[in-house]
Amino acid sequence: MLTLINHARPVYGENGRFLGYRGAVRNVTELEQLASQLAHQAAHDPLTGLVNRGEFERRLDLALGAQRNGEGRWHLVYIDMDHFKVVNDRGGHAAGDRVLKQIATALAAACRSIDVAARVGGDEFCLLINNLPDAAITQLLERLAQRVRELGEQHALGARLDLSFGVVELDRQLTNVDAALAAADARCYRHKARPRPSAHIV
């Protein structure tokens, strides 16, 4: 699809008769494509292709506003990978990047079009889940954790990879993005201290 900009002005003869238009048509399709590409790059993590932290915080702020207006039920999930440092130490950063990309693929596959998956730190991820029952969220996260444990075995690096989760439902007590992320991060820290596997996540 082409995007054209037309710059033209009317032309009249000596007797005032309208003769037509004179101007130029400019094809700005490539400029629009470049702008779209730059906007995508600004909002996404270059390694995993997931939404980056800045864009995730923007969408989380929108979800908090929607929740205050009674528009849907939202859960924020903070995800931290356990023992990821072992992967980098034993396999190098290339191995670490492969694991991160595979985890990102699993997160993206688990999300619906109304959910958001993001990489918010080195080995930290977040999900923003809309209108999903608690039990379904628990099952989703348990499947993700199992997938990560399988990745640890596949890469044969002796790393017992696992995931820790912190889940909070957005409510009026979480007044802003920082408060919501801090609450989810605190729950993630508590989950990390539990024996594994831990079935009760939400």
Radius of gyration: 24 Å
Report how far apart the termini are. 46 Å
CATH architecture of the largest domain: 2-Layer Sandwich
State the strand order across the main sheet.
4-5-3-6
Number of domains: 2
CATH topology of the largest domain, what is it called? Alpha-Beta Plaits
Largest sheet: 4 strands, antiparallel
**Which CATH class of the largest domain?**
Alpha Beta
Spell the H/E element sequence.
EEHHEHEEHEH
Outline: elongated
Strand content: 15-25%
Would you tell me the overall average pLDDT? 85
**Number of distinct beta strands:** 6
The SS-based structural class is alpha+beta
Helix content: 40-55%
Question: Low-confidence segments, ≥5 residues, pLDDT <50?
Answer: none
